[in-house]
């Protein structure tokens, strides 16, 4: 395992043309980029729609710094806010917005976060076991490995990483911390290699699934996604669009289920003779199939290979049924 110097916060946005086309179709005036990052998507939206305004939100203060520089040419139309996208309704209200015409969520970790050893997101470089998107959050990867019970750790590795050897890994984590606390990514990666083997199923490096699981747990990413989808739906104007990019099945499953649930006109239990839920569809699904990267984009940016874009449009009618989609 090697180390690399700190990298600047530069990120190649995936599915850029597809996102811009999906949101620009609204010809709207107000947009939220809930995962601002280095502002590649945001800059493209502002460029495509010269009369629109945009609020960009990101938990990572380093991303906000980079985004402000990137969006300097659009300073009169762009606002950058450090925060969680699940709080987008309150953030929008703070700036006098009660509705928006489009919301973008690009879920997961960014390339600058992965590639900076000091952030602790990757098993490719040695660094502190951190993984916090917001460095001010109280729980780091080391906190979880050193303080969570064996059962809690096994659940994290199994449910968030889909790791079949989750219990063995959890047992080994607890045994090792009794002798020495967890501090470095290199140590955790070496333990995973010993337990899982040098090559995981499907050819993945052995640390892949457990590092993913730990990152999701640290940042509560799936809860944040569920809350963010609900917030976006409540904030969108009729005709406004929600565009969500996901990179693995856990995220995509949540997005797909949410959009299908909100597009449904009945959620009554099967077998009832008549509908009693009074639910009205809140969304119509624009992308019947997931939108994926073109061959040209993949040749230029291999990290786009797992990206999936789903797009839905808000209808005038709002759902009055209880929304339980995950």
Could you describe the 3D structure shown?
The protein is globular, with a radius of gyration of 21 Å. The N terminus and C terminus are likely disordered. The longest helix has 15 residues. The protein is 40% helix and 13% strand. The protein has 13 helices and seven strands. It has a domain of 97 residues: DNA polymerase, domain 1 (Orthogonal Bundle), CATH 1.10.150.170.
Summed up:
By secondary structure, this protein is an alpha/beta fold.
Distance N terminus to C terminus? 38 Å
What is the topology, as strand order, of the major beta sheet? 3-2-1-4-5-7-6
Q: Which series of helices and strands comes N to C?
A: HEHEHEHEHHHHHHHEHEHE
Instruction: Evaluate the radius of gyration.
Output: 21 Å
Looking at the structure, what is the overall shape?
globular
User: How many β-strand stretches?
Assistant: 7
CATH superfamily of the domain at 123-219: Putative methyltransferase TM0872, insert domain
Q: What structural class results from the helix and strand content? A: alpha/beta
Helix share of residues? Answer: 25-40%
Strand content: 5-15%
CATH architecture of the domain at 123-219: Orthogonal Bundle
Calculate the mean pLDDT score and round it: 93
CATH topology of the domain at 123-219, anyone?
A: DNA polymerase, domain 1
Give a quick account of the main beta sheet: strands, pairing sense, barrel closure. Answer: 7 strands, mixed
Q: How would you classify the quaternary structure? A: single chain
| CATH top-level class of the domain at 123-219 | Mainly Alpha
Question: Could you name the ranges where pLDDT drops below 50 across 5 or more consecutive residues?
Answer: 1-7, 319-326
**Total of DSSP H or I helical runs spanning 4+ residues:** 13
């Amino acid at each position: 395992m090697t180390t690399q110097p700190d990298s600047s916060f530069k990120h190649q946005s995936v599915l850029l043309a597809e996102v811009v086309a999906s949101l620009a179709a609204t010809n709207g005036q107000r947009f939220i980029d809930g995962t601002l990052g280095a502002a590649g998507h945001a800059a493209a939206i502002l460029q495509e729609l010269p009369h629109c305004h945009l609020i960009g939100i990101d938990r990572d203060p380093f991303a906000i710094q980079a985004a402000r520089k990137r969006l300097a040419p659009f300073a009169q139309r762009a606002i950058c806010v450090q925060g969680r996208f699940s709080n987008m309704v309150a953030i929008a209200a703070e700036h006098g917005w009660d509705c928006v015409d489009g919301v973008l969520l690009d879920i997961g970790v960014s390339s600058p976060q992965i590639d900076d050893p000091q952030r602790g997101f990757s098993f490719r470089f040695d660094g502190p076991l951190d993984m916090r998107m917001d460095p001010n959050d109280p729980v780091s990867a080391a906190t979880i490995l050193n303080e969570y019970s064996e059962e809690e750790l096994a659940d994290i590795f199994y449910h968030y990483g889909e790791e079949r050897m989750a219990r063995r890994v959890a047992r080994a984590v607890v045994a090792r911390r009794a002798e020495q606390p967890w501090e470095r990514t290199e140590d955790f990666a070496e333990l995973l290699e010993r337990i899982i083997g040098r090559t995981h199923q499907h050819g993945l490096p052995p640390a892949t699934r457990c590092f993913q699981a730990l990152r999701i747990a640290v940042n509560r990413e799936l809860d944040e996604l569920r809350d963010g989808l609900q917030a976006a739906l409540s904030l969108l104007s009729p005709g406004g669009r929600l565009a969500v990019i996901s990179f693995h099945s856990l995220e995509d499953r949540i997005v797909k289920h949410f959009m299908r649930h909100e597009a449904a006109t009945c959620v009554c239990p099967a077998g009832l003779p008549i509908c009693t839920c009074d639910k009205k569809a809140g969304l119509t699904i624009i992308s019947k199939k997931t939108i994926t990267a073109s061959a040209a984009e993949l040749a230029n940016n291999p990290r786009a290979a797992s990206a999936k874009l789903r797009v839905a449009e808000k209808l005038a009618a709002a759902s009055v049924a209880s929304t339980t989609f995950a």
